[in-house]
Amino acid sequence: MITRNLIVLCPNCHSQFDDFYFAIDLETRAVHCIFEEDEPYHQASLNIVHELDPKYLEYAWCIFNKKKKSIQ
């Protein structure tokens, strides 16, 4: 377990996050949703009290964007 790759989510959101339906923008630290118009949390701000490692955010962000492009 790496604390710099840890965010607390409910079980449903955790599953969706692991499937890259959500990702955190590395620059803005806002949540992005793969189905933007259907999700009220799209571009929501996060309340993070510890430092997230940019390499983990970038990894998830890249996969998220590839998945998003593949469904468009």
SSE order and pairing:
Elements: H1 11-18, E1 22-24, E2 31-33, H2 54-71
Antiparallel strand pairs: 1-2
What overall form do the CA principal axes indicate? globular
Characterize the main sheet: 2 strands, antiparallel
Radius of gyration: 12 Å
Q: What percent of residues adopt helix (DSSP H or I)?
A: 25-40%
Number of helices: 2
- From the N-terminal CA to the C-terminal CA, the straight-line distance is 34 Å
Reading the helices and strands in chain order gives: HEEH
Task: Give start-end ranges of low-pLDDT stretches.
Answer: none
Mean pLDDT metric: 85
Explain how this protein is built:
There is one protein chain. This protein has 72 residues and is mainly α. 36% of the residues lie in helices and 8% in strands. It has a two-stranded antiparallel ribbon with strand order 1-2. A hairpin with a 6-residue loop joins β1 and β2. The N and C termini lie far apart (34 Å). The mean pLDDT is 85.
Which key phrases capture this entry?
72 residues, mainly alpha, two-stranded antiparallel sheet, 36% helix
Put the structure in a nutshell.
With 72 residues, the protein is mostly helical.
